[in-house]
């Protein structure tokens, strides 16, 4: 089984006024289904109220991330699934619930994890 990251940037989530309650309900329902199916690892959203910190090996910090990297924001879910096809099906369910396309990535196996 592999772990898959299913995510979207904040800008992708364009929800018409009055539909936020339904989006919240629908996306939480998919997460509850993932938990019930035993494939849920973690889910959430990036807290934009806290600034990104770039932390050096000596412990010093700089506000902001890597300048050449796009901003990491939005929502994500990590699910442990038996195949890429299964991951695509879960990503499609989240896309429908969130009303926006989802990016799908697989984590490389790390024997220390």
Automatic annotation (TrEMBL):
Gene3D superfamilies: Dimeric alpha+beta barrel
InterPro entries (UniProt xref): Dimeric_a/b-barrel (IPR011008)
Organism: Pseudomonas marincola
Protein name: Transcription initiation protein
């Amino acid at each position: 089984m592999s772990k898959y990251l299913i995510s979207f940037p904040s800008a992708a989530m364009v929800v018409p006024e009055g539909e936020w309650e339904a989006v919240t309900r629908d996306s939480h329902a998919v997460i509850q289904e993932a938990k019930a199916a035993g494939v849920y690892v973690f889910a959430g959203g990036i807290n934009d109220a806290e600034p990104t910190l770039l932390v050096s090996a000596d412990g010093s910090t700089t506000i902001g991330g890597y300048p050449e990297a796009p901003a990491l924001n939005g929502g994500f879910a990590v699910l442990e699934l038996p195949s890429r096809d299964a991951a695509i099906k879960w990503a499609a369910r989240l896309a429908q619930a969130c009303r926006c396309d989802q990016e799908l990535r697989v984590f490389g196996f790390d024997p220390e994890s």
